[in-house]
Each structure stands twice: as C-alpha cells, then as structure tokens.
Amino acid sequence: MALTNRYKTAPGAGTLAALILVLVFGSPWYADWATDNTNPETAGGWWLRLLAWPRWRFDSDDSIQNVLSTDLRAILVVALTFLFLYMLPGSQLARARGTLSQFFAGWASYVFAGGFAALIAALILRDPTLLGAFRAAGEGATYGLFVGWIIGLATLGGWRGTRS
After folding, report:
1. Does the N terminus or the C terminus of the chain have fewer Cβ atoms within 10 A?
2. Please, what is the Cα angle at 137 between 82 and 139, to 5 degrees?
3. Tens digits of per-residue pLDDT, 12-48?
4. Residue 30 to residue 96: CA distance in whole angstroms
C-alpha cells in the first residue's frame, strides 16, 4: 500500500477514476438499466440516472454526427479531467498531500470537465444552437457537481507530479 501511494499522482488518480466512471456508468447497459429501473422523481433515482450522463454508444439509429458527438462528450470528460487536474493550482499549493484543497481541486476539475465537454460536443451536433450548447454545458456542470466528489476523493494523497 505504501509503495502505490508513493508513486500516485493526483492527476493520474483522478483521471483513472473519471475513466472508470465513464466506462461503467456511461455504458449503454447501465444507462438502459437506470432508465428502466429508477424513478427520476426520487433523489436516488435522479442521481442514478445522472451517473449515466456521459454515456457512450457504438451503434444507434441516430445520425453518425450525433453518435460521434455523444461519444466525444464521454472522451472529453476524461481528457479534460486530466487537463484541469494538471492545471488547477489547489494540489500544487497545498503544503501537505491529502489536504482539503486537493479534494476541492479534484472536484472542481470534474465540474469544469463536464461543462466544457458538453459545450464542445453540443457545438458539433447537427444544427447546433447557442442556447442548446449553454443548456448542455449546464447539464455537464450539474453532472460534475454531483459526481465530482468521487474524483476529489481519488486525488487525495496523490503527488502533483513526479518526485525525486
């Protein structure tokens, strides 16, 4: 356990957690299960459906542009999580690993990643509108706000970069 924590970086751990969230809860199987078996009028049902927001799919009756946009959103959530984790100064400025600033930097990274991923993906849809892009960014930021604490926990105790 000490060996793995010694080499764990905050951006790497957060990105791995984001990848697992997107692969598992964004899968078509989980999204279908959440839609069929949860009640969106309850807090638990709403949250379980929210987990499926960065869904990805590999076959659909929808246009190829919309399928690519959906898949791009899932990919961008993971890639932008890494980028924001690397760029946000919370874990850089923390005097000790595992501080509250590291947790909030991880959480904020996921909020930003969700919002920007949705915004970018919405702009490549067929007939995109600015209002539609703003609404999508709001949905992505909402996803990041309610799920990002998992990324924040994953980044706790990680090093900002390589150690000598």
Report:
1. C
2. 100
3. 899 999 999 999 999 999 999 999 999 999 999 999 9
4. 38
